[in-house]
Amino acid sequence: MNYKGKSKEELIKELQKLEKTNDVLRLSLEKEKNNRIPEEKCLRENSFLLMVQNSPDVIWTLDKNYRYTYISPSISKLRGLLPEEAMKEKIQDTISLDSQEDFFDAIADLRDEVKQKSYQPVTVEVKQNHKNGHIIWVEIVINAYFNEQGDQIGYMGISREITQRKIAEIELLEKKGKYHTLTENMKEVVWSIDTESMLIDYVSPSIIQLLGYTSEEILSGSIELVTTRKTLKIIHKQVDKAKDNFKINSSDKDNNYHVEVELLRKDGSKVWVELTSRFVKNRVTGQLEMYCRTRNITERKLAEEALKSSLERFDTLVAMVSVGVYIFWIRSNGHMEFEYVSDRWRDIHDVRPDEDMTDITTVNNKIHKDDIEDFLLANMEAARDRKPFVWEGRFNIKNDERWFRIESIPIGYENGDIRWFGVTQDITERYNAEEALRKSEEKLRELNAQKDKFFSIIAHDLKNPFNAIMGLSQLLIDQIKEKDYEGIEEYGTYISESTEKAMNLLVNLLNWARSQTGRMEFNPENFEIVELIEENKMLLAGNASQKLISIKTSLPEKLTVFADKQMISTVIRNLLSNAIKFTKENKEILITVKENPENIHVSIKDQGIGIAADRLEKLFRIDSSVSTPDTNNERGTGLGLILCKEFVVKHGGNIGVDSEKGKGSTFYFTLPKNG
Question: What DSSP state is assigned to residue 85?
Fold first, then answer.
């Protein structure tokens, strides 16, 4: 704007115009500002209202007459009412009669807070009526409500349902009531201890007999009042361990403890107790609680101390004996521990002097796995019947198998405890000597049986063929001298057959004798077993044809085995010869060879007279071998089968027979494929 050339009056008018314009602008700005403040206030109020309406807790306001002036929509979830329905009520009309006193006590406390200008909210738990007619538990947090001038115009509060929590608390109180009724009639003292403050929450009346205090005298007092320093340290250790366990595992598993400790009586004297503790977590408060049971064992402990004193003198004598001495407890609650073990006992069981003998697994884990069941059964039987325990078995000591003999005598006590006084003796050398003697006796019996068999064969079985040969030879000579040639061919045949039998018997006898004396050479080699079977079949074909017996085979084209060819040939020849002898005329014999994953299986099946079941197990034994008459009613020595077993076993194979009287037999043997 250009002010040059204008008069004073004109300038004053222009200035007045500017002032008016400025007043208009100022009024406009003030009006805009006044309009913006309510808008911001409204925005804040809308945000707060949105939060209130979506809160799971019920938020409400009351006037001074306790009528609702506002109530949030979540009242429908709490009491089943719409907000407009709830607004018609006074809050005291919604509260059960037995809870109204608690509510108004809270209002009185709140008024005191207002007078003191602390303005702290108060909390009260009350029962309220639900629209459906049932009762719910509600936690109410309430505070005074003021206007902008600072005058109280009512109350504001928050309501939250706690029905499930209250039910759990009531159930817990009922259980505690029953628990207290039960414990008040027990001789043992029952305790409950707050693990945070270590104050005694509950103690049964029998405390007066144990410590001389009444329940009232020590209730809510510290556990330190009745414990020695050592005992208090043990209890704190249990509490710490239980807390650690609950952090790892929320269950009360592995939170049970059993110890023997000293407590302090009212007169200052000490008393020994058996303390059994259990820790559980309160499912309402989440706090760890300790429950204890104590039993007076002072008399027993004094007796133990007296015994311990005498044992110290006894140790000198015990150290002079070769056995290990021990005293062992089985408590009425099943707990087991060693009270005393001698140095010799520790040496025998390889237990260090610093090892904890309250853990019996230190010893039991060393029992041989095949003997542990027998040991435990013998223990349980002796404990049940209160009879002496005697057991012999193996222990694994320093990577060595040792034989122990354990003997103990029980002494029972009125409380159900059993105390065992016992000794452990290392009998390994004696057992080994006895075992060697037993094996020596078995070997001697076997040798005697072999000797008897040997002389029996020489005296009878080998003599008979030669007697026949000698008799027939003399008869043949006499007839030739007289030029009587009738029947001499038959005599010659008999002489040949007798000679063959004698030769076969002599070969078997010599082979068996060589095997028993260790002079038979074992020369395994690769050879075709199918060819070997065919060779022996051809060798004995004449014997089979005399009885019109057909020898059939079921063989692979080729099968190589690694074995001593001479020994296996002897086995096949003996089994096939026996099959021919015991098979009737016009019957069949079947030779079968099968290749299995682990072995070669050879079987010779006949249609002979079979073998009785009670004779089968004796076939391959030198000390009780039996022979069955063949189809010509002639008996063999049984030596051939015994020799077969010797040769097959030497190869690492097995030999056996399946037979039924009157239906024939199948003899079989196996050879390992790997030789």
Answer: H
Q: Hey, is 178 helix, strand or coil? A: helix
Q: Residue 3: what pLDDT?
A: 45
pLDDT tens string 512-569? 666 666 666 788 999 999 999 998 888 788 778 888 999 999 999 999 999 988 889 8
Cα 184 to Cα 412: distance, rounded to the nearest angstrom: 29
Whether residue 410 contacts residue 375, with contact meaning beta carbons closer than 8 Å, is answered with no
Say how many C-beta atoms besides its own lie within 10 A of residue 278's C-beta. Answer: 14
Alpha carbon distance 599, 674 (integer Å): 8
Each residue's pLDDT tens digit, 327-370 = 999 888 888 888 888 889 999 999 888 887 777 888 888 999 99
d(CA 128, CA 105): 16
58-63, strands of its sheet edge to edge: 68-71, 58-63, 152-161, 135-146, 122-129
Give CA 355 to chain center in angstroms: 25
Beta strands in 134-240 (DSSP E): 135-146, 152-161, 189-194, 200-203
Q: Which two tokens stand for residue 496?
A: 């040949």
Distance CA 436, CA 415 (A): 48
pTM above 0.90, yes or no: no
Which DSSP string do the residues of 89-121 spell out, in sequence order?
A: SBHHHHB-HHHHHHHHHHHHHHHHHHHTT----
d(CA 107, CA 141) in angstroms, rounded, equals 11
> What is the spatial distance between Cα 265 and Cα 297, in angstroms, rounded to a whole number?
14
Give the type of residue at 504: N
C-alpha 505/C-alpha 491 separation (Å) is 21
Helices and strands in the chain: count of H runs, count of E runs = 21, 22
